Amino acid sequence: MPVTALYPGTFDPPTNGHIDLIQRGAKIFDHLTVAVLMNPVKDPLFTVEERVEMLKEVTAAIGNVSVATFDGLMVEFARQQGASAVLRGIRAISDYEHEFQMALMNRRLAPEVETVFLQPAGRYSFVSSRMVKEVFSFGGDITGLIPPNVLKRLRARIGNS
Ligand SMILES: Nc1ncnc2c1ncn2[C@@H]1O[C@H](COP(=O)(O)OP(=O)(O)O)[C@@H](O)[C@H]1O
Ligand SMILES: [Mg+2]
Predict the structure, then answer these.
(1) Bond preceding residue 13 cis, omega within 30 of 0
(2) pLDDT tens across 102-161, in order?
(3) Residue ranges lining ligand 1, Cβ < 6 Å
(4) What is the pLDDT of residues 31-45, one digit of tens each?
(5) Going along 38-156, which residue ranges are E strands?
(6) Greatest extent of the chain over all pairs of C-alpha atoms, in Å
(7) Which of 25, 28, 60, 120 is the most buried (most CB within 10 A)?
């Protein structure tokens, strides 16, 4: 049976770490749906629509990847999508505790959905959307950490080099 996985997140904005994970996920699952959480609490830099556009641009060449949005319970959306797996990234041990809690809560809510953790390439293991925004806003060089289309939008949004 073909396995669809959901890769949920905030993606504000997508980084090369996210893309690395999408590429790895696309290789092991038949279909991967990148799902942008519509979470008004997080006060994002980019709108959900902008984040979806950026993700579509960077995944356009990968045939078995699609991009969607969701709100509410992630596992409910996974069920709606027919996804039997949820992909999450672990950059460092510090990610693990929170991810582990979420995975077990999600298993309790939807025992049929398995959480799968993947590690990015080492060169992306320190990259987060938050750090990218912070360093960029102070004029630091973030070349190679985000795709060109995201850099363009960051420049337009926060100005800078
Ligand atoms: N550089 C990276 N390498 C690998 N995984 C990452 C990286 N940055 C984020 N992730 C993973 O991608 C997923 C989505 O992250 P994020 O966009 O921050 O949304 P969330 O609000 O769910 O943490 C999480 O599982 C996170 O651990
Ligand atoms: Mg995060």
Answers:
(1) yes
(2) 999 999 999 999 999 999 999 999 999 999 999 999 999 999 999 999 999 999 998 764
(3) 9-11, 15, 17-18, 21, 88-89, 91, 95, 120, 124, 127-129
(4) 999 999 997 777 899
(5) 65-70, 85-89, 114-118
(6) 49
(7) 25
From 31, 51, 91, 153, active-site residue: 91
Cβ-contact 11, 51 below 8 angstroms? yes
Tell me how long the chain is: 161
Distance 18 CA to ligand 1 centre (A): 6
Alpha carbon 131 to its chain centroid, in Å, reads 15
42 part of the active site: yes
Q: Indicate the DSSP class of residue 101.
A: H
98 belongs to the catalytic site? no
- Ordered domains of the chain (ranges, CATH): 4-158 (3.40.50.620)
